[in-house]
Amino acid sequence: MMRITLITIGSRGDVEPFVALGKGLSEAGFRVCLASHERFRAFVTAYGLEFRPVAGDPREILQKAEGQTLLA
């Protein structure tokens, strides 16, 4: 079985497409791991994908002045 790891950071809207991709790859016979923020663990594993945490919290980053420039 081939193994693939998908990595995504950001909001749930950034993570959802990778979960859909991972689910499709899993159905095609791949062993899929998705790496993202801890807050998405339950969402990812609910679709039968493995999960690995990525450090940081996008909400914290966006609350800082530097993060606000990303939204401008």
Describe the structure.
With 72 residues, this protein is α/β, with parallel strands linked by helices. It has one domain. It has helices spanning 12-27, 41-45, 58-63, 65-71, and strands at residues 3-7, 31-37, 50-54. Strands 1-2-3 form a three-stranded parallel β-sheet. Strand 1, helix 1 and strand 2 (31-37) form a beta-alpha-beta unit. The mean pLDDT is 91.
What is the structure about, briefly put?
The protein is α/β, with parallel strands linked by helices and 72 residues long.
Beta-strand content bin: 15-25%
Count of the separate structural domains: 1
Which shape, going by the Cα principal axes? elongated
SSE string, helices as H and strands as E = EHEHEHH
Helical/strand content category: alpha/beta
- Rounded radius of gyration (Å): 14 Å
Say how many strands there are.
3
Q: Figure out the total of helices.
A: 4
Rounded average pLDDT: 91
End-to-end separation in angstroms reads 44 Å
Main-sheet strand order equals: 1-2-3
Low-confidence stretches: none
What secondary-structure arrangement, pairings included, does this model have?
Elements: E1 3-7, H1 12-27, E2 31-37, H2 41-45, E3 50-54, H3 58-63, H4 65-71
Parallel strand pairs: 1-2, 2-3
What key attributes describe this structure?
72 residues; alpha/beta
